[in-house]
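note to self: the first set is below, dont mix up w the second
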Amino acid sequence: MAGKTKPQPDLELSIDENSPVPIYMRVKQLITMKINQGAWTTNQKIPSESELVNQLGCSRMTVNRALRELTAEGILVRVQGVGSFVAEGQGQTSLFQIHNIADEIAARNHQHRAEVLVLESIRADSIQSLQMQVQEGHPLFHSIIVHYENDIPVQVEDRLVNAYLVSDYLNQDFTRITPNAYLMANAPITEGEHIVKAILASAQESKWLKINKTEPCLFIQRRTWSNKNLISSARLIYPGNRYHLEGKFTP
Protein backbone atom coordinates (compact mmCIF):
# COMPACT_ATOMS: atom_id res chain seq x y z
CA MET A 1 0.00 0.00 0.00
CA ALA A 2 1.21 3.48 -0.84
CA GLY A 3 0.87 6.80 0.93
CA LYS A 4 1.38 5.75 4.55
CA THR A 5 1.97 9.28 5.85
CA LYS A 6 0.31 9.68 9.22
CA PRO A 7 -2.57 12.23 9.09
CA GLN A 8 -2.42 15.18 11.44
CA PRO A 9 -4.40 14.71 14.67
CA ASP A 10 -7.14 17.11 13.68
CA LEU A 11 -10.17 14.96 14.43
CA GLU A 12 -12.82 16.17 16.82
CA LEU A 13 -15.83 14.30 18.14
CA SER A 14 -18.46 16.24 20.03
CA ILE A 15 -20.26 14.00 22.49
CA ASP A 16 -23.84 15.13 22.94
CA GLU A 17 -25.50 13.19 25.75
CA ASN A 18 -28.92 13.97 24.24
CA SER A 19 -27.98 12.77 20.75
CA PRO A 20 -29.75 9.59 19.57
CA VAL A 21 -26.69 8.65 17.51
CA PRO A 22 -24.45 6.00 19.14
CA ILE A 23 -20.83 7.07 19.64
CA TYR A 24 -19.43 4.33 17.38
CA MET A 25 -21.71 5.57 14.58
CA ARG A 26 -20.42 9.12 15.04
CA VAL A 27 -16.87 7.79 14.76
CA LYS A 28 -17.85 6.07 11.51
CA GLN A 29 -19.44 9.26 10.21
CA LEU A 30 -16.34 11.27 11.05
CA ILE A 31 -13.98 8.86 9.29
CA THR A 32 -16.28 8.65 6.26
CA MET A 33 -16.54 12.45 6.11
CA LYS A 34 -12.74 12.76 6.08
CA ILE A 35 -12.59 10.34 3.16
CA ASN A 36 -15.45 11.98 1.25
CA GLN A 37 -13.88 15.42 1.67
CA GLY A 38 -10.56 14.16 0.30
CA ALA A 39 -8.61 14.68 3.53
CA TRP A 40 -7.73 10.98 3.40
CA THR A 41 -7.27 9.60 -0.10
CA THR A 42 -7.31 6.14 -1.66
CA ASN A 43 -4.71 3.76 -0.17
CA GLN A 44 -3.74 6.30 2.52
CA LYS A 45 -3.24 4.99 6.03
CA ILE A 46 -5.57 6.52 8.56
CA PRO A 47 -4.69 7.04 12.27
CA SER A 48 -4.21 3.84 14.23
CA GLU A 49 -6.82 2.52 16.64
CA SER A 50 -4.79 3.86 19.58
CA GLU A 51 -4.42 7.28 17.94
CA LEU A 52 -8.16 7.46 17.30
CA VAL A 53 -8.87 6.53 20.92
CA ASN A 54 -6.60 9.34 22.12
CA GLN A 55 -7.82 11.94 19.61
CA LEU A 56 -11.52 11.24 20.02
CA GLY A 57 -11.64 10.42 23.71
CA CYS A 58 -13.60 7.23 23.01
CA SER A 59 -13.11 3.72 24.33
CA ARG A 60 -11.02 1.26 22.35
CA MET A 61 -14.09 -0.95 21.98
CA THR A 62 -16.03 1.90 20.34
CA VAL A 63 -13.25 2.73 17.86
CA ASN A 64 -12.66 -0.95 17.09
CA ARG A 65 -16.33 -1.46 16.24
CA ALA A 66 -16.33 1.59 13.96
CA LEU A 67 -13.24 0.36 12.10
CA ARG A 68 -14.60 -3.19 11.81
CA GLU A 69 -17.89 -2.00 10.34
CA LEU A 70 -16.19 0.41 7.92
CA THR A 71 -14.00 -2.47 6.77
CA ALA A 72 -17.03 -4.75 6.30
CA GLU A 73 -18.71 -1.98 4.24
CA GLY A 74 -15.69 -1.74 1.96
CA ILE A 75 -14.70 1.78 3.01
CA LEU A 76 -11.48 0.71 4.74
CA VAL A 77 -8.97 -2.09 4.21
CA ARG A 78 -7.27 -3.39 7.35
CA VAL A 79 -3.83 -4.97 7.04
CA GLN A 80 -2.85 -7.15 10.00
CA GLY A 81 0.05 -5.62 11.91
CA VAL A 82 0.17 -2.55 9.63
CA GLY A 83 -3.07 -0.56 10.05
CA SER A 84 -6.20 0.61 8.22
CA PHE A 85 -6.17 2.18 4.75
CA VAL A 86 -8.76 3.97 2.61
CA ALA A 87 -10.20 1.46 0.16
CA GLU A 88 -10.31 2.14 -3.55
CA GLY A 89 -13.34 3.40 -5.39
CA GLN A 90 -15.50 4.64 -2.51
CA GLY A 91 -18.09 7.29 -3.28
CA GLN A 92 -16.70 8.21 -6.66
CA THR A 93 -19.44 7.21 -9.08
CA SER A 94 -23.18 7.31 -8.79
CA LEU A 95 -25.24 4.79 -10.74
CA PHE A 96 -27.12 7.67 -12.35
CA GLN A 97 -27.00 11.42 -12.29
CA ILE A 98 -29.00 13.20 -9.62
CA HIS A 99 -29.13 16.90 -10.31
CA ASN A 100 -29.35 19.61 -7.70
CA ILE A 101 -32.44 21.71 -8.44
CA ALA A 102 -30.64 24.94 -7.49
CA ASP A 103 -27.94 24.17 -10.09
CA GLU A 104 -30.56 23.35 -12.73
CA ILE A 105 -32.28 26.67 -12.16
CA ALA A 106 -28.99 28.60 -12.14
CA ALA A 107 -28.02 26.93 -15.43
CA ARG A 108 -31.10 28.57 -16.97
CA ASN A 109 -29.89 31.93 -15.63
CA HIS A 110 -32.87 32.00 -13.30
CA GLN A 111 -33.08 32.70 -9.58
CA HIS A 112 -33.54 29.89 -7.08
CA ARG A 113 -34.84 30.28 -3.57
CA ALA A 114 -36.15 27.81 -1.01
CA GLU A 115 -38.78 28.04 1.72
CA VAL A 116 -38.33 25.60 4.60
CA LEU A 117 -41.76 24.53 5.88
CA VAL A 118 -40.78 21.62 8.14
CA LEU A 119 -37.46 20.64 9.71
CA GLU A 120 -37.90 18.19 12.56
CA SER A 121 -36.86 15.00 14.31
CA ILE A 122 -39.40 12.15 14.26
CA ARG A 123 -39.69 8.43 14.99
CA ALA A 124 -40.42 6.13 12.07
CA ASP A 125 -43.99 4.85 11.81
CA SER A 126 -44.89 1.59 10.07
CA ILE A 127 -44.88 3.13 6.56
CA GLN A 128 -41.72 5.18 7.10
CA SER A 129 -39.89 2.18 8.54
CA LEU A 130 -40.49 0.22 5.32
CA GLN A 131 -39.57 3.21 3.20
CA MET A 132 -36.28 3.77 5.06
CA GLN A 133 -35.52 0.09 5.80
CA VAL A 134 -35.39 0.67 9.57
CA GLN A 135 -37.38 -0.54 12.57
CA GLU A 136 -40.45 1.31 13.79
CA GLY A 137 -39.42 4.02 16.23
CA HIS A 138 -36.03 4.54 14.56
CA PRO A 139 -34.95 8.23 14.69
CA LEU A 140 -35.45 10.05 11.39
CA PHE A 141 -35.11 13.64 10.27
CA HIS A 142 -38.00 15.07 8.23
CA SER A 143 -37.96 18.14 6.03
CA ILE A 144 -40.46 19.76 3.68
CA ILE A 145 -39.10 22.45 1.38
CA VAL A 146 -40.67 24.36 -1.49
CA HIS A 147 -38.23 25.34 -4.24
CA TYR A 148 -38.92 28.44 -6.34
CA GLU A 149 -37.69 29.48 -9.77
CA ASN A 150 -37.99 33.23 -10.27
CA ASP A 151 -40.49 33.25 -7.36
CA ILE A 152 -42.66 30.57 -8.97
CA PRO A 153 -42.93 27.32 -6.94
CA VAL A 154 -41.63 24.44 -9.03
CA GLN A 155 -41.01 21.63 -6.52
CA VAL A 156 -42.20 20.34 -3.17
CA GLU A 157 -39.47 18.26 -1.57
CA ASP A 158 -40.67 16.01 1.27
CA ARG A 159 -37.60 14.16 2.59
CA LEU A 160 -36.75 11.58 5.25
CA VAL A 161 -33.14 11.13 6.38
CA ASN A 162 -31.65 8.43 8.60
CA ALA A 163 -30.69 10.35 11.75
CA TYR A 164 -28.00 7.85 12.72
CA LEU A 165 -26.18 8.29 9.41
CA VAL A 166 -26.47 12.06 8.87
CA SER A 167 -26.60 13.41 12.40
CA ASP A 168 -26.09 17.12 11.59
CA TYR A 169 -28.98 17.45 9.13
CA LEU A 170 -31.21 19.60 11.35
CA ASN A 171 -28.44 22.16 11.87
CA GLN A 172 -28.25 23.15 8.20
CA ASP A 173 -29.66 26.31 6.65
CA PHE A 174 -31.58 24.88 3.70
CA THR A 175 -32.34 28.34 2.34
CA ARG A 176 -28.60 28.54 1.53
CA ILE A 177 -27.81 24.93 0.58
CA THR A 178 -30.24 22.33 -0.72
CA PRO A 179 -30.63 19.01 1.11
CA ASN A 180 -29.41 17.29 -2.05
CA ALA A 181 -26.17 19.31 -2.12
CA TYR A 182 -25.61 18.82 1.61
CA LEU A 183 -26.14 15.04 1.44
CA MET A 184 -23.95 14.69 -1.66
CA ALA A 185 -21.12 16.46 0.18
CA ASN A 186 -21.45 14.42 3.37
CA ALA A 187 -22.68 11.04 2.11
CA PRO A 188 -21.89 10.75 -1.64
CA ILE A 189 -24.34 8.54 -3.49
CA THR A 190 -23.19 5.08 -4.54
CA GLU A 191 -26.63 3.70 -5.37
CA GLY A 192 -30.00 5.18 -6.14
CA GLU A 193 -33.60 4.38 -7.00
CA HIS A 194 -36.18 6.43 -8.89
CA ILE A 195 -39.91 5.79 -9.20
CA VAL A 196 -41.71 8.22 -11.52
CA LYS A 197 -45.49 8.69 -11.67
CA ALA A 198 -48.13 11.15 -12.80
CA ILE A 199 -50.29 12.14 -9.81
CA LEU A 200 -52.67 14.73 -8.46
CA ALA A 201 -51.10 16.61 -5.58
CA SER A 202 -52.83 16.75 -2.21
CA ALA A 203 -54.79 19.85 -1.27
CA GLN A 204 -51.89 21.09 0.85
CA GLU A 205 -49.29 20.35 -1.83
CA SER A 206 -51.42 22.11 -4.45
CA LYS A 207 -51.58 25.14 -2.16
CA TRP A 208 -47.79 25.16 -1.73
CA LEU A 209 -47.32 24.89 -5.50
CA LYS A 210 -50.07 27.44 -6.19
CA ILE A 211 -51.87 25.19 -8.63
CA ASN A 212 -55.43 23.92 -9.05
CA LYS A 213 -56.12 20.58 -7.34
CA THR A 214 -57.05 19.06 -10.73
CA GLU A 215 -53.71 19.95 -12.34
CA PRO A 216 -51.54 16.87 -12.99
CA CYS A 217 -48.14 16.71 -11.34
CA LEU A 218 -44.95 14.79 -11.91
CA PHE A 219 -44.02 12.69 -8.87
CA ILE A 220 -40.54 11.24 -8.26
CA GLN A 221 -39.85 8.94 -5.34
CA ARG A 222 -36.08 8.96 -4.88
CA ARG A 223 -34.11 6.79 -2.47
CA THR A 224 -30.33 7.06 -2.20
CA TRP A 225 -27.65 4.92 -0.62
CA SER A 226 -24.08 5.75 0.41
CA ASN A 227 -21.67 2.86 0.91
CA LYS A 228 -24.57 0.40 1.21
CA ASN A 229 -26.42 2.53 3.78
CA LEU A 230 -29.87 3.90 2.89
CA ILE A 231 -29.44 7.61 3.60
CA SER A 232 -32.55 9.34 2.35
CA SER A 233 -35.97 8.94 0.79
CA ALA A 234 -37.49 11.98 -0.92
CA ARG A 235 -40.92 12.66 -2.42
CA LEU A 236 -40.46 15.27 -5.15
CA ILE A 237 -43.60 16.82 -6.65
CA TYR A 238 -43.52 19.14 -9.66
CA PRO A 239 -46.40 20.90 -11.45
CA GLY A 240 -46.76 19.08 -14.76
CA ASN A 241 -46.72 22.27 -16.82
CA ARG A 242 -43.52 23.58 -15.18
CA TYR A 243 -41.21 20.60 -15.40
CA HIS A 244 -40.12 17.81 -17.72
CA LEU A 245 -37.65 14.92 -17.53
CA GLU A 246 -34.75 14.89 -19.95
CA GLY A 247 -32.04 12.32 -20.50
CA LYS A 248 -29.64 10.84 -23.02
CA PHE A 249 -28.69 7.26 -23.61
CA THR A 250 -26.45 5.24 -25.91
CA PRO A 251 -27.83 1.97 -27.33
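second set (the one i keep forgetting abt)
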Amino acid sequence: MNKKYNVIRGLSLVMILFSTVLVSSCVSSKKIAYFQDIQAINQAKLDNAAAFVEPTIQPDDILSVNIFTLNPQSGAIVNQAANTPTLGGNSNSSLSTQSTGFLVDKNGEIELSLIGKLKVAGLTTYQARELIRDKAAEVYKQPNVQLRFANFKVSVLGEVNAPSAYTLPNEKVSILDALSLAGDLTIYGKRDNVLIVRDNNGKKEFARLNLNSSDIFNSPFYYLKQNDVVYVEPNKRKVSASNSAQIQTIGVLASVVSVIVLAISSFK
Protein backbone atom coordinates (compact mmCIF):
# COMPACT_ATOMS: atom_id res chain seq x y z
CA MET A 1 0.00 0.00 0.00
CA ASN A 2 2.86 2.37 0.86
CA LYS A 3 4.52 1.64 -2.46
CA LYS A 4 1.31 2.42 -4.31
CA TYR A 5 0.95 5.65 -2.32
CA ASN A 6 4.50 6.68 -3.16
CA VAL A 7 3.91 6.00 -6.85
CA ILE A 8 0.74 8.08 -6.85
CA ARG A 9 2.55 10.86 -5.02
CA GLY A 10 5.35 10.79 -7.59
CA LEU A 11 2.79 10.90 -10.38
CA SER A 12 1.20 13.98 -8.83
CA LEU A 13 4.54 15.76 -8.65
CA VAL A 14 5.25 14.94 -12.29
CA MET A 15 1.86 16.30 -13.36
CA ILE A 16 2.53 19.52 -11.42
CA LEU A 17 5.84 19.94 -13.22
CA PHE A 18 4.12 19.16 -16.52
CA SER A 19 1.50 21.87 -15.89
CA THR A 20 4.20 24.37 -14.89
CA VAL A 21 6.01 23.83 -18.19
CA LEU A 22 2.82 24.38 -20.16
CA VAL A 23 1.98 27.57 -18.26
CA SER A 24 5.49 29.01 -18.76
CA SER A 25 5.20 28.27 -22.47
CA CYS A 26 1.95 30.22 -22.68
CA VAL A 27 3.44 33.19 -20.82
CA SER A 28 6.35 33.37 -23.27
CA SER A 29 4.04 33.36 -26.28
CA LYS A 30 2.23 36.44 -24.96
CA LYS A 31 5.31 38.52 -25.74
CA ILE A 32 5.39 37.59 -29.43
CA ALA A 33 2.25 39.17 -30.93
CA TYR A 34 2.31 42.82 -32.06
CA PHE A 35 -0.26 45.45 -30.96
CA GLN A 36 -1.97 43.21 -28.43
CA ASP A 37 -4.12 46.05 -27.13
CA ILE A 38 -5.41 47.14 -30.54
CA GLN A 39 -8.96 45.89 -29.90
CA ALA A 40 -9.20 48.09 -26.81
CA ILE A 41 -8.23 51.25 -28.67
CA ASN A 42 -10.92 53.70 -29.69
CA GLN A 43 -10.82 55.76 -32.87
CA ALA A 44 -10.09 59.01 -31.02
CA LYS A 45 -6.79 57.69 -29.77
CA LEU A 46 -5.75 56.47 -33.21
CA ASP A 47 -6.50 59.93 -34.59
CA ASN A 48 -3.66 61.24 -32.42
CA ALA A 49 -1.06 59.15 -34.23
CA ALA A 50 2.28 60.82 -34.92
CA ALA A 51 2.34 62.96 -38.05
CA PHE A 52 4.93 62.39 -40.75
CA VAL A 53 7.53 65.18 -40.97
CA GLU A 54 9.34 65.52 -44.26
CA PRO A 55 13.10 65.00 -43.93
CA THR A 56 15.38 67.88 -44.84
CA ILE A 57 18.51 67.69 -46.96
CA GLN A 58 21.79 67.58 -45.06
CA PRO A 59 25.49 67.76 -46.06
CA ASP A 60 26.79 64.44 -47.43
CA ASP A 61 23.35 63.50 -48.75
CA ILE A 62 23.22 62.30 -52.33
CA LEU A 63 20.41 63.68 -54.49
CA SER A 64 19.07 62.23 -57.68
CA VAL A 65 18.20 65.18 -59.94
CA ASN A 66 16.70 64.92 -63.41
CA ILE A 67 15.61 67.83 -65.60
CA PHE A 68 13.16 67.27 -68.46
CA THR A 69 12.33 69.88 -71.11
CA LEU A 70 10.42 70.11 -74.36
CA ASN A 71 13.70 69.23 -76.04
CA PRO A 72 14.82 65.93 -74.42
CA GLN A 73 18.45 66.66 -75.25
CA SER A 74 18.47 69.99 -73.41
CA GLY A 75 18.79 68.51 -69.95
CA ALA A 76 21.03 65.67 -71.04
CA ILE A 77 24.14 67.26 -69.52
CA VAL A 78 22.60 67.50 -66.05
CA ASN A 79 20.95 64.10 -66.25
CA GLN A 80 24.15 62.44 -67.41
CA ALA A 81 26.00 63.92 -64.44
CA ALA A 82 23.25 62.67 -62.14
CA ASN A 83 23.98 59.13 -63.25
CA THR A 84 27.66 59.38 -62.29
CA PRO A 85 28.46 57.06 -59.36
CA THR A 86 29.10 58.89 -56.09
CA LEU A 87 30.93 57.25 -53.21
CA GLY A 88 29.11 56.91 -49.93
CA GLY A 89 25.76 55.40 -50.91
CA ASN A 90 24.43 51.96 -50.02
CA SER A 91 22.17 49.45 -51.67
CA ASN A 92 19.78 47.01 -50.06
CA SER A 93 22.50 44.40 -49.82
CA SER A 94 24.83 46.93 -48.13
CA LEU A 95 27.64 45.51 -50.28
CA SER A 96 27.58 48.37 -52.76
CA THR A 97 29.49 51.54 -51.86
CA GLN A 98 28.20 53.74 -54.67
CA SER A 99 25.06 55.71 -55.44
CA THR A 100 24.35 57.86 -58.47
CA GLY A 101 23.49 61.52 -58.02
CA PHE A 102 24.81 64.82 -56.72
CA LEU A 103 26.66 64.95 -53.42
CA VAL A 104 25.64 67.77 -51.07
CA ASP A 105 28.94 69.30 -50.00
CA LYS A 106 29.97 70.56 -46.56
CA ASN A 107 28.49 73.96 -47.40
CA GLY A 108 25.13 72.34 -48.12
CA GLU A 109 25.40 72.97 -51.88
CA ILE A 110 25.15 70.94 -55.06
CA GLU A 111 26.56 72.02 -58.41
CA LEU A 112 24.52 71.47 -61.56
CA SER A 113 25.87 71.88 -65.07
CA LEU A 114 24.84 75.20 -66.70
CA ILE A 115 22.90 76.14 -63.55
CA GLY A 116 25.73 76.43 -61.03
CA LYS A 117 25.82 75.96 -57.29
CA LEU A 118 22.60 75.86 -55.30
CA LYS A 119 22.27 75.72 -51.52
CA VAL A 120 19.83 72.95 -50.71
CA ALA A 121 20.75 71.98 -47.13
CA GLY A 122 17.84 72.47 -44.76
CA LEU A 123 15.27 72.18 -47.57
CA THR A 124 12.80 69.36 -48.14
CA THR A 125 13.01 67.58 -51.47
CA TYR A 126 9.90 69.49 -52.58
CA GLN A 127 11.47 72.85 -51.71
CA ALA A 128 14.74 71.88 -53.42
CA ARG A 129 12.86 70.76 -56.51
CA GLU A 130 11.08 74.11 -56.74
CA LEU A 131 14.37 75.97 -56.29
CA ILE A 132 16.07 73.98 -59.05
CA ARG A 133 13.10 74.41 -61.36
CA ASP A 134 13.15 78.19 -60.92
CA LYS A 135 16.89 78.31 -61.66
CA ALA A 136 16.58 75.87 -64.57
CA ALA A 137 13.87 78.07 -66.13
CA GLU A 138 16.59 80.68 -66.69
CA VAL A 139 18.43 78.20 -68.91
CA TYR A 140 15.81 75.78 -70.22
CA LYS A 141 12.32 76.27 -71.61
CA GLN A 142 9.53 74.94 -69.39
CA PRO A 143 11.70 72.56 -67.36
CA ASN A 144 10.25 69.78 -65.26
CA VAL A 145 12.41 68.65 -62.36
CA GLN A 146 12.43 65.34 -60.51
CA LEU A 147 14.41 65.12 -57.28
CA ARG A 148 14.70 62.51 -54.57
CA PHE A 149 17.22 61.15 -52.09
CA ALA A 150 19.56 58.65 -53.69
CA ASN A 151 20.91 57.46 -50.35
CA PHE A 152 17.95 57.58 -47.95
CA LYS A 153 19.26 54.84 -45.71
CA VAL A 154 18.15 53.10 -42.53
CA SER A 155 20.03 50.30 -40.81
CA VAL A 156 18.31 47.37 -39.12
CA LEU A 157 20.47 45.31 -36.77
CA GLY A 158 20.11 42.58 -34.19
CA GLU A 159 17.50 39.86 -34.02
CA VAL A 160 15.94 40.23 -37.46
CA ASN A 161 16.02 37.74 -40.31
CA ALA A 162 17.96 39.98 -42.71
CA PRO A 163 20.01 42.63 -40.87
CA SER A 164 21.43 45.22 -43.26
CA ALA A 165 21.56 48.86 -44.31
CA TYR A 166 18.64 49.56 -46.64
CA THR A 167 18.53 52.37 -49.20
CA LEU A 168 14.93 53.39 -49.87
CA PRO A 169 13.30 55.29 -52.73
CA ASN A 170 10.56 56.55 -50.42
CA GLU A 171 11.08 59.20 -47.73
CA LYS A 172 8.06 58.09 -45.70
CA VAL A 173 9.36 55.03 -43.89
CA SER A 174 7.97 53.70 -40.62
CA ILE A 175 9.57 51.35 -38.12
CA LEU A 176 7.24 48.64 -39.44
CA ASP A 177 8.42 49.24 -43.01
CA ALA A 178 12.04 48.87 -41.92
CA LEU A 179 11.37 45.67 -40.01
CA SER A 180 9.47 44.28 -42.99
CA LEU A 181 12.46 44.93 -45.24
CA ALA A 182 14.62 43.08 -42.73
CA GLY A 183 12.34 40.05 -42.83
CA ASP A 184 10.66 40.78 -39.47
CA LEU A 185 12.01 39.90 -36.04
CA THR A 186 13.30 36.43 -35.30
CA ILE A 187 11.72 34.51 -32.48
CA TYR A 188 14.70 35.65 -30.40
CA GLY A 189 13.90 39.36 -30.86
CA LYS A 190 12.74 41.39 -27.87
CA ARG A 191 9.58 43.00 -29.18
CA ASP A 192 8.81 45.26 -26.25
CA ASN A 193 12.09 47.21 -26.28
CA VAL A 194 13.24 47.99 -29.85
CA LEU A 195 15.92 50.69 -29.86
CA ILE A 196 16.01 53.59 -32.34
CA VAL A 197 19.26 55.57 -32.65
CA ARG A 198 18.99 58.91 -34.46
CA ASP A 199 21.58 61.53 -35.40
CA ASN A 200 20.04 64.98 -34.95
CA ASN A 201 22.46 67.74 -35.97
CA GLY A 202 25.43 65.83 -34.65
CA LYS A 203 23.73 64.76 -31.42
CA LYS A 204 22.50 61.25 -30.76
CA GLU A 205 18.88 60.67 -29.80
CA PHE A 206 17.52 57.37 -28.48
CA ALA A 207 14.06 55.91 -28.16
CA ARG A 208 12.62 52.57 -27.10
CA LEU A 209 9.50 51.28 -28.86
CA ASN A 210 7.17 48.53 -27.67
CA LEU A 211 5.87 46.59 -30.66
CA ASN A 212 3.39 44.80 -28.41
CA SER A 213 1.56 48.07 -27.87
CA SER A 214 -0.23 50.35 -30.32
CA ASP A 215 1.35 53.31 -28.52
CA ILE A 216 4.15 53.22 -31.10
CA PHE A 217 1.78 54.94 -33.55
CA ASN A 218 1.94 58.01 -31.31
CA SER A 219 5.72 58.06 -31.07
CA PRO A 220 7.75 60.70 -32.96
CA PHE A 221 10.10 57.82 -33.76
CA TYR A 222 7.40 55.80 -35.53
CA TYR A 223 8.49 57.38 -38.82
CA LEU A 224 12.20 56.93 -39.38
CA LYS A 225 14.60 59.56 -40.62
CA GLN A 226 17.63 59.19 -42.81
CA ASN A 227 20.49 57.22 -41.24
CA ASP A 228 18.36 55.99 -38.33
CA VAL A 229 19.52 52.74 -36.78
CA VAL A 230 17.01 50.16 -35.58
CA TYR A 231 18.38 47.62 -33.11
CA VAL A 232 16.42 44.59 -31.93
CA GLU A 233 18.03 43.09 -28.88
CA PRO A 234 17.77 39.35 -28.09
CA ASN A 235 15.29 38.34 -25.44
CA LYS A 236 16.54 36.81 -22.23
CA ARG A 237 14.75 33.52 -22.50
CA LYS A 238 15.61 32.86 -26.12
CA VAL A 239 12.01 31.88 -26.83
CA SER A 240 12.67 29.50 -29.68
CA ALA A 241 15.44 27.70 -27.79
CA SER A 242 13.34 27.45 -24.65
CA ASN A 243 10.34 26.20 -26.65
CA SER A 244 12.54 23.50 -28.15
CA ALA A 245 13.75 22.52 -24.70
CA GLN A 246 10.17 22.54 -23.44
CA ILE A 247 9.08 20.19 -26.21
CA GLN A 248 11.85 17.79 -25.26
CA THR A 249 10.92 18.09 -21.60
CA ILE A 250 7.25 17.43 -22.36
CA GLY A 251 8.24 14.35 -24.35
CA VAL A 252 10.31 13.04 -21.45
CA LEU A 253 7.56 13.80 -18.96
CA ALA A 254 5.00 12.07 -21.14
CA SER A 255 7.18 9.00 -21.21
CA VAL A 256 7.63 9.11 -17.44
CA VAL A 257 3.88 9.47 -16.94
CA SER A 258 3.27 6.47 -19.15
CA VAL A 259 5.72 4.38 -17.17
CA ILE A 260 4.17 5.44 -13.87
CA VAL A 261 0.67 4.70 -15.12
CA LEU A 262 1.79 1.24 -16.13
CA ALA A 263 3.42 0.80 -12.72
CA ILE A 264 0.23 1.80 -10.93
CA SER A 265 -1.77 -0.57 -13.06
CA SER A 266 0.48 -3.45 -12.03
CA PHE A 267 -0.47 -2.95 -8.37
CA LYS A 268 -4.15 -3.47 -9.01
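remember for set 2: The mean pLDDT is 78.
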